[in-house]
Design brief:
This protein has 302 residues and is mainly beta. It is built from 4 helices and 14 strands. It has one domain.
C-alpha cells in the first residue's frame, strides 16, 4: 500500500512469513537464534528467549482517552499496582480501567508462553474470525513481571488485512500474520509526537495515497509503529533487512486507519495512535499479540 518502497518488493503492508516467526522486543545488536518450528528469537546472550512454537499477536487499538478512573478494589481503594499504572498511563492521556487479571483475556497458553518475562505492556488485537478484516484493540499493562494485567484505556476499533489472518503469511497474500511480536521502533511522515520508542521522522519515505489532504490514504503513514515481524528489532521501520527473506514479506506496521482493510498491517484511528506512541515504553518490553480469536485462545497452535 505504501509508495515508500516504490519499485521494490515488500512495500508497506505486504508481508509473508513462515509459520511461527517470533521476534520479541530486545536490545539492538542481539544475536539471531533459530529455535523449534522455525521460530526466530533474539537474545542478548545468543540463547533462545523461549521455546516451542511461535505465537503471533492481534493488533490492539490503543490510545482511547478515558476519563473514568480505575475500578477500586473491594475495600474501595485502588490496589498499589493500579495506582502506579494509573499515574503512568495518565502521562499518555490514558486511564487504567477494571480489575487486574492473571492472564490476558482470550489469549491461550501458546501465546502467553511467548511473552518475554520482562514484558509489562501488551497491545492485544483480536478479530472474530480468520477472514475478518476488522478487529478490537486493547492495551494491557502490569507493574511487575508476574503481576496482574490491567486494561489501559477503552477498546479501539481497528482494521487488518483484506483477506483476514494467517499463520503462514506470504508476500502479497493480503492477510495479517497471527502471532506475538515485539514493538521496538516507530516513525512517520510527521514529527515525533512524544514517542518513547526510537522515532524515525522521514517525510520522503512515509508517503502514501495521492497527497491530497482529503485522501485518507495520504495520512496512513503520518505515524507508524513497526511490528517486529520478519525484521530486525530496534531498527527503523524503513530498514529493509528481512531475516526470512523477501518472500516472507515485511513492513507490517501499526498505522493510521485509511477507512479500508489493509494489505497486512493493523490500522487504528488517527486520534488513537498518538496516545499509543506516548504509552509504549521500551523499558517495558512492549509486545503485540494479534490474530483471530479462535487461534489466539487455543492452548496449542493447530
Amino acid at each position: 500500500m505504501g509508495a515508500h518502497r516504490k519499485g521494490r518488493p515488500g512495500r508497506g503492508e505486504n508481508s509473508g512469513s513462515r509459520r511461527g516467526v517470533l521476534v520479541p522486543s530486545t536490545a539492538v545488536g542481539a544475536a539471531l537464534v533459530f529455535g523449534a518450528a522455525s521460530v526466530l528469537y533474539l537474545s542478548d546472550n545468543g540463547q533462545s528467549d523461549g521455546g516451542g512454537q511461535a505465537a503471533m499477536i492481534p493488533e490492539q487499538r490503543a490510545g482511547v482517552l478515558a476519563s473514568a478512573p480505575p475500578t477500586p478494589a473491594a475495600n474501595g481503594q485502588l490496589s498499589g499496582e493500579a495506582r502506579l499504572l494509573s499515574r503512568q498511563a495518565a502521562s499518555a492521556g490514558l486511564a487504567v480501567a477494571g480489575q487486574g487479571q492473571r492472564t490476558l483475556p482470550g489469549v491461550g497458553a501458546w501465546a502467553m508462553s511467548l511473552l518475554p518475562p520482562t514484558t509489562r505492556q501488551v497491545v492485544l488485537v483480536q478479530s472474530d474470525g480468520r477472514d475478518s478484516t476488522d478487529n478490537v484493540i486493547t492495551l494491557w499493562e502490569r507493574a511487575d513481571p508476574g503481576g496482574e494485567w490491567f486494561q489501559v484505556g477503552e477498546p479501539i476499533s481497528g482494521r487488518n488485512g483484506a483477506r483476514g489472518w494467517t499463520l503462514t503469511h506470504r508476500e502479497g497474500d493480503q492477510r495479517s500474520p497471527v502471532g506475538v511480536f515485539g514493538l521496538t521502533a516507530a516513525g512517520g511522515r510527521l514529527a515525533n509526537p512524544g514517542s518513547l520508542l526510537p522515532y524515525e521522522h522521514r517525510p520522503d519515505f512515509y508517503q502514501s495515497g495521492s497527497g491530497d489532504p482529503a485522501d485518507p490514504f495520504s495520512h496512513a503513514f503520518d505515524y507508524v509503529i513497526a511490528i517486529d515481524y520478519n525484521r530486525v528489532p530496534g531498527t527503523p521501520p524503513s530498514d529493509e533487512v528481512r531475516p526470512f527473506g523477501p518472500a516472507a514479506g515485511g513492513d507490517i506496521w501499526l498505522h493510521v486507519d485509511h477507512h479500508t482493510p489493509t494489505r497486512g498491517c493493523v490500522a487504528l484511528p488517527a486520534d488513537q495512535i498518538v496516545p499509543l506512541l506516548r504509552w509504549l515504553n521500551p523499558a517495558a518490553t512492549p509486545m503485540i499479540i494479534m490474530g483471530n480469536t479462535q487461534t489466539l485462545a487455543a492452548d496449542q497452535l493447530p
